[in-house]
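Subgroup meeting minutes
Present: P.N., E.W., G.H.
Scribe: E.W.

1. P.N. recapped why we're keeping a running log of single-chain structure predictions: easier to compare across weeks, and new members can see raw inputs and outputs side by side.
2. G.H. added today's entry (327 aa).
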Amino acid sequence: LEDLQDTFDFCFKVHYLPGADRTSDPQYAQQAQALQSKLQILDRQRREVLAQMQQLLGRSETLQDFLQQELGAWRERQQRACMGAPADTRLRPLETWFTELGQGLFQLLQLLRALGNLQQKVTYERDPLKAETPLLEQRLRELLTYLLQSAFVVEQQPSMPNPCKRPLVLRTASKFSTRARLLIRLHDRNHRMEAKIHIDRSGRPGFRKFNILTSSSKTLLAGDSPQDGLVCDFQYLTLKEQKDSRSGKGSKGAGEGPLVVTEELHLITFTLAYAYCGLELELQTTSLPFVIISNNNQLSSAWASILWFNMLSHNPKASGTPPAPGP
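Output recorded in log:
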């Protein structure tokens, strides 16, 4: 397409003289007819390229739907694994599929920009590049944004290192770890990619409030084990309850407020500043709800809340344990 355009552009500049009256020149008429023929070929080729891109975007949307189904199945397996069920929670297959699709979409984005450059050099009346390229780029950016947002997942749910402790039950002043992964292994090496974690970012009314001690941010560099993928690994974190300024004590006890301590479901949110090929996004993902206790006597009740939630609710942002189903 670029070669066709360069040939047309050269012939146009050589044979077409604006303002010159050469209507009686038979050779000029032949040259004008040849130019018109070249323009028709160029226009047809542009339309074919755009049609192929439309087709590829349609296939990409279909493939993305399949990936969302696979990702949903993985989330269900991870949820069962947190309750102790044997389940395969490896992410390498999903990481390979997401990366391949992301790479293809970013290549289409580069191709669209190249088409935009061609259109700036040579355009004409009813130029399909001028009309369709912006719409295709908007559709492609929406596809990439959705794919990247869904590719940011919590690989390891919040848990304490002691094997006898239950996952998703954390104790104040005790260390815990959690890890998120970006399944698309593409990033700009010149961009500082920073990941942050927040607890109860949306602010749940009536719940105790906590601060995450130690580092709550991490910068991912190009040299951080690229063979292991793009991982936000937070270790040796601790939680400290915020004191109620009105009483000088903790916000509430185990039997006060709308929910008892072991029924409060908290969330950790990961955010990641992502950039690649001129596309900059803030990606976000959320952990499964977890319970925060202050002593081991609350462990069994907290674990019961976790089991109850994971068996009855599919909404990770629920604010409390779901009610029992009716008869």
